[in-house]
Specification:
The chain is about 20% helix and about 25% strand. The protein is an alpha+beta fold. The chain has one domain: 4-Layer Sandwich (CNF1/YfiH-like putative cysteine hydrolases). A 6-stranded mixed beta sheet has the order 1-2-3-15-7-4, with no helix packed on it. It has a 6-stranded mixed beta sheet with strand order 5-6-9-8-10-14. A 3-stranded antiparallel beta sheet has the order 11-13-12. A hairpin with a 4-residue loop joins strand 8 and strand 9. The longest helix has 12 residues. The chain is globular, with a radius of gyration of 17 Å.
Amino acid sequence: MLFKENILIPQWKKEFNNLICGFTTPFFGNMALTRRSVSTKRTLKENRVFLSETLNIPSNTIFSPRQTHSDTVLYVNDNNVGRGAYSLDGAQDGDACITDKKNILLLVSWADCIPVLLFEEEKGICAAIHSGWRGAKENIAAKTIKKIIEIGGKESNIYAAVGPGIRDCCYKVGIDVIKYFENDNYSEFIRKNDGEYYLDLQSVVCRQIILSGVKKENIDNYGECNSCSTKIEFFSCRKDGKEKFEGQAAFIGIY
């Protein structure tokens, strides 16, 4: 991925005109609807307006769901665009959103969970996903890709970007979580050390995208763990604590 203007931008093998997408860094402040800004003096609305000004788009074209660690995929069009743009008021519950309309910026927040952006080039379909372990357990990535197919897309035309997320270096979990991933598809992403279990959630989600039919060469994966990244100091729930952590944004849209 390319780091430009404090945004991580996917580097796919093709360039797409009018596509705006990327992953913010803490430079833009808190982007999570459910979190209170503590690292900056700006409010969430001010942070999102700042991002939209940087992207040169209207801030009221943002759609952002109330993330509940579900497998719900929301379809976005002119009827619900703007919901969740600045606050939880009116936000729809879900952890993935999809649109085939222009002038809509899909935005999800993340702070250890895995952010994913999808783009189907032929039909111009965009999607943004927030996948924690619960979302991965329910395979929200695959369900989002299925929705893309349902509205006319093809797996072979999908490009995916997997942003910074927590890996087995930092993600210690209990057997109650591990039991869902002890199978042939994901067991290689489980590490056991001194009786403790560690899960590479980022690799789990990448595998789910590949198993859904997206070509491996069409996936741009940031790779580094956001909790202990040496390139950029990201917000992280594990690192910052449940009471203080904030969130970055993953966003995508055609303008």
